[in-house]
Amino acid sequence: MEDDLYQALLTLGHPVAWLAFNKAVGLPRISLQRISTVTGYSQTGRADVETARVQINVSAETYSEAAALGRAVSELLTELRSGSVIRCRELSRRDGSSETGGDIIRQQMLDISVRYRA
């Protein structure tokens, strides 16, 4: 699931990383982190389908850039049916910002539910 989401988001043309980037990258950029995973069970044991909640942080220099990229991420993932990913659904989207070195980075944080084959 992680690689399928990563590869899909790369098609948007911006840097993408799970958790954090290994080096400084420009803006806009996309980072992902798993918030939780729910494993299904049947009477015979663990099911092969799981649901994860993934937070996707979109960072940009301006609010309009962050909002546009946030919409693009949501549209891309809600239409994604690839590899292990069965279905993605946007649960929520929040605006935010962070200050680093005197610069203000605008963000959108999307919570996405990802149903996938384990």
UniProtKB/TrEMBL annotation:
Top-level taxon: Bacteria
Question: What keywords are assigned to this protein?
Answer: Plasmid
Pfam families linked: Tail_completion_gp17
Name the InterPro entries for this protein. Answer: Gp17-like (IPR021508)
Tell me what this protein is called.
DUF3168 domain-containing protein
Organism for this UniProt entry: Phaeobacter inhibens
